[in-house]
Amino acid sequence: MKARLAATGRVFTGLRLLVSGLWRGMRAAPGARPASRPASRLLVAIVWLTAAPALHAESLSQALSTLASSHDFSIKGLARVQDEPAPYTFGDLREQLSTLLQDYDHVILGAPPTVRHIIILGPKADTPALMRVKTRRRNTQHFVDVTVAGPNGLPMPLALMVDTGASTLVLPASLIEPLGFEADTLPERRAQTVNGTIEGLGAELKSVRIDSAVQESVAVVFIDDDKLGEARLLGMSFLRHYRFTIDDAANELRLARR
To answer: For residue 134, is pLDDT > 70?
Structure first.
């Protein structure tokens, strides 16, 4: 954001110097005739047109709403966008969105080059080390390699689907005992997913690891295998500890510790 303001300031400074130089040149040129009114008006018009991008007054939320309307995609979390001017954008839709949301954690959903849905998570904090984790695609879904551990401390590698709509990790009940839990001692819990609320047994994993990102004490809900099917979800009980972005074009999950 500061870089944008500095860049805008440099544009105005450059324009001011340009106009000043032209004016001095017209006044100082030997034998020069005073500029006529049409010429003066032309100079003003040129300066105004040159300055137009820097004077772009549309707010960031307005710019995002305009793109959403014209390209038919939805935005969740638009209220998290601060009251600030939108930067001037170029390129295709995804390039424009990347510029507009450069100061915000966000997720863009949809097979490139299309955009179907955007989730704005909030303003970025000071940027810590960024981890880039390759994902595997199944249609529009992203899967990542995850290693989880329960009370017995034994690492268990799994492929989990990244689901920002899931409140916790969601795993099949058949993994309760292999992870070292006792089903009889686990309380009933509900988990929220994009498809609605599901009921199961709640527990806390000892650790969850994705590449070099490790989080301890992560909530999980175990669901009957026949109800869950093959879905195993990496939900917000892990993801909330990170600033993250899903890059559809690069098939990457990008994580930075909050």
So the answer is: yes
